[in-house]
From TrEMBL, chains A, B:
<dbReference type="InterPro" id="IPR036388">
    <property type="entry name" value="WH-like_DNA-bd_sf"/>
</dbReference>
<dbReference type="GO" id="GO:0003677">
    <property type="term" value="F:DNA binding"/>
</dbReference>
<dbReference type="InterPro" id="IPR036390">
    <property type="entry name" value="WH_DNA-bd_sf"/>
</dbReference>
<dbReference type="InterPro" id="IPR043129">
    <property type="entry name" value="ATPase_NBD"/>
</dbReference>
<protein>
    <submittedName>
        <fullName>Putative ROK-family transcriptional regulator</fullName>
    </submittedName>
</protein>
<dbReference type="InterPro" id="IPR000835">
    <property type="entry name" value="HTH_MarR-typ"/>
</dbReference>
<feature type="domain" description="HTH marR-type">
    <location>
        <begin position="20"/>
        <end position="71"/>
    </location>
</feature>
<comment type="similarity">
    <text>Belongs to the ROK (NagC/XylR) family.</text>
</comment>
<dbReference type="InterPro" id="IPR000600">
    <property type="entry name" value="ROK"/>
</dbReference>
<dbReference type="Pfam" id="PF00480">
    <property type="entry name" value="ROK"/>
</dbReference>
<dbReference type="Pfam" id="PF12802">
    <property type="entry name" value="MarR_2"/>
</dbReference>
<dbReference type="GO" id="GO:0006355">
    <property type="term" value="P:regulation of DNA-templated transcription"/>
</dbReference>
Length: 386, 386
C-alpha cells in the first residue's frame, strides 16, 4: 500500500511533522521544546522550525512561564500551547420541528448552544430564516464574532450531495432540490458542510456518545420512517451517492403499507410528522387498547426488519437507536430480542446518549474534522493495487 | 490524518522507497536505473540501494542487455525486471457441488486451473480430500513445486472468522465450526487465507470482471438464499464479525417462508441445494405453468427485496449478480426494474463476468494481496481522530 506517498516529497514530511507536533501540543498541557522532542521523536531543530511556523499561523502561542516552578535557576524553558481560541466552529441541525446550533473553539469544546421550534409546514425560506436567527443568537451570546468561524457543519434530513444540495428530502417542505449549502454559504466566509442528519448523529455518538468505544456502528434515527448513518472502521460511510442507510424506503419495494398507515388505529393513515399522534398510539397500547397494540406491533416489526436489514448488510459491532421513537417505551427490548434471535452475529443494541443534541453535535464534529484536515493535511496513503 | 506515521522512523522511509521501486519495476518492462530514477522521483543512490536489496531477496534480477539497441557506444545500461516466477499463488474454491483451484505467478497471471465435482452430501473430510486432489493436480500440471507457493486463498460459503474457522456454514455438511484454515494449513508452508465465497467473488469482479471500473460494489451470490460481498472504496467490507452481506437471513426475522418453500410448486419445500429442481421450476414457468410462475415470482420478489436492502444500506455504484441463479432467465430484468423504481439512488445492475470462476479468482487475488502487503509493507496512515 503506497498510493501517493512517493518517496521524494519533502513538503509531505514537513506536513507530517507539523501534524505530529500539533497533535502532541493538543494532547499535552503546555509542553516545552524538550517535552515535544520526547513526545514526537523529532529532532529539536525540526520541532523548533515547526513551532515557529505554527506561531506565525496563529495556531500556537508561547504560554506564560509558571511561577514557583522547580526550575528556579537560569532562564525558564519556553512553553507552548495550542490556541483553541484561534478559531471557532458551528454545528447546526435543521429538522422538521426544530433548528438548533452549537458553537465551539478549535478543540471542539462547546461554548454556546441554542434552538428554536419551527412549524413542520414552514417553507424552506422560513426555515432558513429561523436557522439564521438561531445562529446569530448563539454567536452573540457566546461572544464569538462571525469572522472567527473556520467551518460550519449542518445536519438535515434527506440525501445530500457532495456540494450540499439536497437531492431528496421529503420530510421538509421545499427541501428536495434545495441548494442548501450554497444558500447558507452566503452568511459565512468559511466552508459550510451539509450532511444527512442520521450520518451526523452517527458521527456524534462516536465522538462523545454511546459509540465512543466502537468503530463499526450503525446509528438508527428511528421515526415513522427510519434512516441510518454508518461508521465503518471509524469513518462515515456515505455511500456512492450519499444515500447509504436510507432503509426506510425498503417497504416501497413490496408495495407494503406506509409507516403512517402501519401506526394508524383507523382506516386513515397518520400525518407523516405528527409525533404527538404517534405517542398517543403508544400510550393507548400501553393501556391495553387492542387496535393501538396491533398498530404498535406492526410499527415495531417494521423497525426490527429495517434494522435487521442494516445489520445483515453491514455487520456492525454496535447499533445505536436515536430519534424520537427511541424515547418511546417498548422499542428497545423487542429490537434487542429479535436481533439476538435471528442475526447471524447479533450486534450490541443501545440507546443514543446525545438524544436531541446528536445531529447538531455531529454537524459540529464534521466542521471540526474539516478544519483538522486542513491543519493536519497529509495525503492519505491509499491502497494502490494491481 | 497522521496515525502511525510518526516523523522519525527511517525504516518506514526505506520500506516506502522499496515499495515505490517495486511498483515502478512491475509497471515498466525492464527499466534501467535512469528509468527508475525518473519513474520514482528517488535519487540514483537510493534506487541502487533498493535494487540491491530486492536482488538479494530474489524478487528482482538483472535482465540481459538488449541486442542491437540504440546504445551502441560504451557499456549498455543495466536493466532490471521483477521476477514473477520468484513465487506462486493458489486460489481455491470449496463449494457445495464443486471444488476448484487456480495457480499464478507473483504477477497474478493464471498459469494453471482445475476443478472437480463433489457430492453435496460429502462430509468435511471427503470434501477436503477432494480439494487436496485438485490442488495437487493443478500444481503438477503447471509444473509449480509446492515449496514455491507464497500464499493460498480459499473461498467457501459461510461466515468465516479471522483465523479461518467457519463460524456458521449451513450450506456444506460439517462446515459450521470447522477450523478450515488450520486444516488446510497442514498441506502448505505458506499462509492460508480463508474468505467467504461472496466476498471472494466481489474481489474477483473488481480485479478482472464486471466491477473493474467501480470501487463501490455489491456482489450478490444469487442462489436459493443469497449472500453478498461488498467493496467500499475498493476495499472488501467484511463487517465487524465477518458476517457482512449475509442478507439471505432476513426472512428468518418475519418468520417468513424459507427460500426452499418459496420456490416449490408443491406443499413440500425443495431441497436447499437442488439446483436442477430449481431450474425445472424456472423452465416450467417459462412454459406458462401457473404454479411455477407463482413460485418464480415469489423467488424473484424475495431476491429483489434482499438486494434492495443491501442497496439501501450501502448505496453502491454497481450491483453485480453472480451465482447459479444469475444464469436463469428472468432474474436480471425484474431486479433492474424494481431497483430503478424504488431505490432512492438506483445503482447499475449487471451480471458477473467471471461466472463460476469468480470465487477461485477472488481467492487468488486475496492471496496476491497478502503477498503484496508483505512485499510492499507500509503501515497505513490512518485517521487519528478522537
Amino acid at each position: 500500500m503506497v498510493g501517493r506517498l512517493t518517496g521524494g516529497d519533502p513538503s509531505l514530511l514537513r506536513r507530517i511533522n507539523s501534524a505530529v507536533v500539533l497533535h502532541a501540543l493538543r494532547g499535552a498541557g503546555s509542553p516545552t521544546l524538550t517535552d515535544l522532542t520526547r513526545l514526537t521523536g523529532l529532532s529539536r531543530p525540526t520541532v523548533e522550525g515547526v513551532i515557529e511556523g505554527l506561531i506565525e499561523a496563529g495556531l500556537v502561542s508561547e504560554s506564560e512561564p509558571e511561577e514557583g516552578g522547580a526550575r528556579r535557576q537560569g532562564r525558564p524553558a519556553r512553553r507552548f500551547r495550542f490556541r483553541v481560541e484561534a478559531g471557532h466552529l458551528l454545528g447546526v441541525e435543521i429538522g422538521p420541528h426544530r433548528v438548533a446550533a452549537l458553537v465551539s473553539g478549535l478543540d471542539g469544546r462547546i461554548i454556546g448552544a441554542g434552538h428554536r421550534e419551527v412549524p413542520e409546514a414552514a417553507s424552506a425560506d422560513e426555515r432558513l430564516e429561523r436557522v439564521r436567527q438561531v445562529i446569530a443568537d448563539v454567536l452573540r451570546r457566546a461572544g464569538v464574532p462571525r469572522t472567527s468561524l473556520r467551518a460550519v457543519g449542518v445536519g438535515t434530513p434527506g440525501i445530500v450531495e457532495a456540494d450540499g444540495t439536497v437531492r431528496l428530502g421529503t420530510a421538509l417542505p421545499g427541501w428536495t432540490g434545495l441548494p442548501l449549502g450554497q444558500r447558507l454559504q452566503r452568511s459565512f466566509r468559511c466552508p459550510v458542510l451539509v450532511e444527512n442528519d442520521a450520518n451526523a448523529a452517527a458521527v456524534a455518538e462516536h465522538w462523545k456518545g454511546a459509540a465512543k468505544d466502537s468503530d463499526d456502528v450503525v446509528f438508527v434515527l428511528a421515526g415513522l420512517s427510519p434512516g441510518a448513518g454508518s461508521l465503518i472502521g471509524g469513518r462515515l460511510h456515505r455511500g456512492f451517492g450519499g444515500a447509504a442507510g436510507e432503509i426506510g424506503a425498503l417497504h416501497l419495494l413490496g408495495r407494503e403499507a406506509t409507516p403512517e398507515a402501519l401506526l394508524s388505529t383507523t382506516d386513515e393513515p397518520l400525518h407523516p410528522l405528527d409525533e404527538p399522534a404517534v405517542a398517543q398510539v403508544f400510550a393507548l397500547a400501553k393501556q391495553g387498547d387492542p387496535r393501538a397494540t396491533a398498530a404498535v406491533d406492526r410499527f415495531i416489526q417494521r423497525l426490527v426488519h429495517n434494522v435487521a436489514a442494516l445489520v445483515l448488510a453491514l455487520d456492525p459491532e454496535l447499533v445505536v437507536i436515536g430519534g424520537w421513537a427511541s424515547g418511546l417505551d417498548g422499542v428497545l427490548a423487542p429490537l434487542r430480542a429479535e436481533l439476538a434471535r435471528y442475526c447471524l452475529r447479533p450486534p450490541r443494541v443501545t440507546l443514543s446518549l446525545l438524544r436531541e443534541a446528536a445531529v447538531a453535535t455531529g454537524a459540529l464534529r464534521l466542521a471540526l474534522d474539516h478544519v483538522e484536515e486542513e491543519l493536519f493535511a497529509v495525503e492519505g496513503a491509499t491502497a494502490a493495487r494491481r
